């Protein structure tokens, strides 16, 4: 089994902490007091023993937890024999599972990884060092040779790029690492429901938290992507998600354009009536005139609502940032109050 090849680092965004060149052996050789508490949270079904061996090799001091849906007695015994804390949970949404893991496990750095692809463990020291360098979320995207994203994935990526100025490719991968303050703020304030990979990335982007990206080239396992269900219902759900995202994050642009469109429609529909009135000297209000006036009024109202919602969105983001900043880091947790 070949190891992933790390690609060149992605361009930094404004305000992001620069990446470092990381040597995994140096991380494992640091003194006990200098090492952050790392929790590896494995989910799904796969070769849990191989995953545990991989993470124990590169992160010998890390806690390893395995969460599975309705595990059988054999699966539970096999995971416990590998020396991992096992939690069998009833089947639920991915977002609910992530919230439960954040609520039950207390650590400084969380690594969320699927329980397959044991060679992914070699990336653990790199993403841990990225979080220690100041990033609150690090996304690990595995790109397999010959794979191409679907149309739905590309639409969602473009929508996130438009809403946040980039980082749209961080919404698909389930292999991520995050800091304690990100995990606690997500558990407390992030909207419930949806897909965890997408919502984790959106939560960091909404709060303008430092985000990192690691790309691994892989030929044996396809990348974990969220493909919308086939059919009209799947596409309707995807388009609804995109529209809701754009309206929530860029209301002034989206609703402003919608308001301008309504006003332009009202002016265009009133133009023939204005010409007739200029020629005859008078014109009684008719259905066309009333529709044009209603369209103009609706356009002004929608544009004003966009400005108001943009102000509320900025205030909501600022409150979320203040709440995340109030969550103590590892160095501050044990400091007694003055």
UniProtKB/TrEMBL annotation:
Membrane-crossing segments per the record: 227-247, 254-271, 291-312
Lineage: Bacteria, Pseudomonadati, Pseudomonadota, Alphaproteobacteria, Hyphomicrobiales
UniProt entry keywords in alphabetical sequence: Membrane, Transmembrane, Transmembrane helix
Domain of life of the source: Bacteria
UniProt keyword Transmembrane helix, yes or no: yes
Protein name: Glycosyltransferase
């Amino acid at each position: 089994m070949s190891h992933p090849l790390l690609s060149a680092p992605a361009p930094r965004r404004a305000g992001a902490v620069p990446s470092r060149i990381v040597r995994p052996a140096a991380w494992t050789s640091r003194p006990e007091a200098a090492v952050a508490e790392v929790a590896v949270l494995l989910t799904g079904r796969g070769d849990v023993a191989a995953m545990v061996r991989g993470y124990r090799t590169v992160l010998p001091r890390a806690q390893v937890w395995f969460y599975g849906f309705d595990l059988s007695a054999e699966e539970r015994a096999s995971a416990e024999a590998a020396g991992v804390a096992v939690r069998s949970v009833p089947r639920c949404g991915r977002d609910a599972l992530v919230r439960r893991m954040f609520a039950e496990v207390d650590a400084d750095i969380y690594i969320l990884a699927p329980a397959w692809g044991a060679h992914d463990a070699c990336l653990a020291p790199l993403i841990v060092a990225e979080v220690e360098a100041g990033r609150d979320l690090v996304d690990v995207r595995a790109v397999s040779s010959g794979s191409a994203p679907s149309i739905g994935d590309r639409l969602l990526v473009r929508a996130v790029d438009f809403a946040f100025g980039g980082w749209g490719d961080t919404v698909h991968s389930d292999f991520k690492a995050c800091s304690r303050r990100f995990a606690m703020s997500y558990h407390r304030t992030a909207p419930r429901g949806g897909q965890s990979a997408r919502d984790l990335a959106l939560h960091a982007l909404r709060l303008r938290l430092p985000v990192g990206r690691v790309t691994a080239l892989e030929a044996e396992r396809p990348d974990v992507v969220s493909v919308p269900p086939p059919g009209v219902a799947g596409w309707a759900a995807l388009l609804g998600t995109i529209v809701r995202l754009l309206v929530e994050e860029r209301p002034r642009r989206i609703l402003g354009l919608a308001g301008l469109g309504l006003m332009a429609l009202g002016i265009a529909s009133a133009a023939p009536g204005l010409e007739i009135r200029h020629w005859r000297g008078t014109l009684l209000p008719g259905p066309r005139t009333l529709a044009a006036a209603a369209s103009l009024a609706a356009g002004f109202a929608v544009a004003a609502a966009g400005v108001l919602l943009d102000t509320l969105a900025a205030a909501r983001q600022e409150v979320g940032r203040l709440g995340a900043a109030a969550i103590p880091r590892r160095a501050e947790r044990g400091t007694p109050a003055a």
